[in-house]
Specification:
SH3 type barrels; five-stranded antiparallel β-sheet; Alpha-Beta Plaits; 18% strand; 268 residues; Helix Hairpins; 3 domains; three-stranded antiparallel β-sheet; alpha+beta; single chain
């Protein structure tokens, strides 16, 4: 019994202070890590960084700091941490190689959340698809297609090509081509088109719409009609203007060549 007590006393003398120091390192280190996490969160929120990125960055920073604190506490106990750090490094490298695709998506997601080429609610074209942005995640971006399908695009693919944001600006230009026959009075055609545009309150006065002869095609004279509208009114004006052109041309006796000249949208 006395031997056990003596050994406990020797153990306490040898390791007591080290254990106390290790515990203090853990407590103080955790407090410091929590303070750094809070400070980092405040800085990112003041700079209006996306909340998803704020949570991820602060959480990652806290984990990294706590890893250093734990290693320092273990080292204080006299345990060699060199081989432990080497094992962690090798494991980290193996994981990075295995998840290189996911890491590429992560890096792309971070860049998108920082530079914000689009936001939730925007209609975009990117990654070979188009739709309304519903969620921007760390690894993927979710879109809703015009026919209400859910599309999930890896962030690396989304940022690997051009991104077209159709709703980033307050107004857009509607591009319509209307063909008339060579026998029609071009001045009359222009007046009819101007009247159609001026009668629609959704069409902006500034910038002013453009009406002009685009080309002398094989079977028609093609007019380009380019009004400016608020982005939210784009498709309503696009469809309504085409319908008005057809009805007014019929009413004014303006011939639309047969087969009817296609009316289409230019995306330049």
């Amino acid at each position: 019994m006395e031997n056990i007590i003596m050994k406990l006393q020797e153990f306490g003398t040898l390791y007591g202070l080290k254990i106390v120091a290790a515990v203090l390192i853990l407590i103080v280190g955790r407090l410091i890590a929590s303070g750094v996490r809070k400070m980092l969160r405040n800085i990112l929120q003041r700079n209006k960084v996306d909340e998803t990125l704020v949570g991820f960055v602060t959480g990652l920073g806290y984990v990294v700091l706590m890893a250093f604190v734990i290693i320092a506490a273990i080292n204080k106990l006299g345990i060699q941490t060199t081989s432990f750090i080497a094992i962690l490094g090798a494991a980290g490298l193996a994981i990075a190689l295995a998840l290189q695709g996911s890491l590429a998506n992560f890096a792309a997601g971070v860049l998108m959340l920082i530079f914000k080429p689009f936001k939730v609610g925007d209609f975009i074209e990117g990654g070979g698809v188009s739709g309304v942005v519903e969620e921007i995640g760390i690894f993927t971006t979710e879109l809703k297609s015009p026919d209400n399908k859910k599309i999930i695009v890896p962030n690396a693919k989304m940022t690997g090509d051009n991104i077209i944001n159709y709703t980033a600006k307050d107004c857009r230009r509607v591009d319509i081509v209307a063909g008339v026959s060579y026998g029609d009075d071009l001045d009359k055609v222009r007046n009819v088109l101007e009247n159609i545009l001026s009668s629609d309150d959704r069409i902006l006065k500034d910038p002013a719409p453009t009406i002009g002869v685009l080309e002398l095609a094989n079977s028609s004279v093609n007019f380009v009609v380019r009004p400016w509208v608020k982005t939210a009114d784009y498709w309503d004006v696009f469809f309504a203007t085409q319908e008005s052109i057809k009805k007014r041309f019929d009413a004014e006796g303006i011939s639309i060549p047969f087969p009817q000249q296609d009316v289409h949208l230019y995306k330049d």
